[in-house]
C-alpha cells in the first residue's frame, strides 16, 4: 500500500493563456511517491482568492505560524488622552473646589 498522506503541500502558480489574455492559476498541490516514481496531485484550485490570501497560504504551508492580533501584543499600561484626560483633571479640581477633597 502506498503512503498517500500529504507530508508537504505547496501553492503553485502558473500563467494560463486564453486568446489574448494571460491569467494566473493558483493550485494547492502535493507530491508523493508511488512505485518509486514522483507523482503530483492537485488538492484544490486557489485562483479566486486575492493574492494576499494566496501569499498567506504559501507562508503557512512553509511552516510560518500566525497569531491573532489581540494575542500578539500585551498592553502593559495606557495613559488617558484627549477629552478623557481633560475630564479627569476637571473632576479632581471641581471636587477640591466643593471641599470634598
What does this structure look like?
The chain is an alpha+beta fold. The chain has one domain. The chain has helices at 51-61, 69-72, 83-98, and strands at residues 9-18, 21-34, 37-45. It has a three-stranded antiparallel sheet with strand order 1-2-3. A hairpin with a 2-residue loop joins strand 2 and strand 3. The longest helix is centred in the last third of the chain and has 16 residues, at 83-98. The model has no long low-confidence stretch (mean pLDDT 77).
Physical arrangement of strands within the biggest beta sheet: 1-2-3
Radius of gyration: 29 Å
Helix and strand content put the structural class at alpha+beta
Write down the domain tally: 1
Cα-to-Cα separation, first versus last residue? 83 Å
> What is the succession of H and E elements?
EEEHHH
Instruction: Report the strand count.
Output: 3
User: What is the overall silhouette?
Assistant: elongated
Helical stretch tally = 3
Q: Strand fraction band?
A: 25-35%
Helix content: 25-40%
Quick check: average pLDDT? 77
Query: What are the low-pLDDT stretches, counting only 5+ consecutive residues below 50?
Result: none
The biggest beta sheet is recorded as: 3 strands, antiparallel
Amino acid at each position: 500500500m502506498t503512503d498517500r498522506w500529504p507530508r508537504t503541500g505547496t501553492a503553485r502558480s502558473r500563467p494560463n493563456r486564453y486568446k489574448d489574455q494571460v491569467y494566473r492559476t493558483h493550485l494547492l498541490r502535493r507530491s508523493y511517491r508511488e512505485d518509486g516514481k514522483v507523482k503530483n496531485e492537485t488538492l484544490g484550485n486557489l485562483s479566486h482568492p486575492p493574492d494576499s490570501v494566496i501569499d498567506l497560504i504559501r507562508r503557512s504551508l512553509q511552516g510560518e505560524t500566525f497569531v491573532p492580533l489581540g494575542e500578539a501584543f500585551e498592553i502593559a499600561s495606557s495613559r488617558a488622552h484627549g477629552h478623557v484626560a481633560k475630564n479627569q483633571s476637571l473632576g479632581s479640581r471641581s471636587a477640591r473646589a466643593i471641599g470634598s477633597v
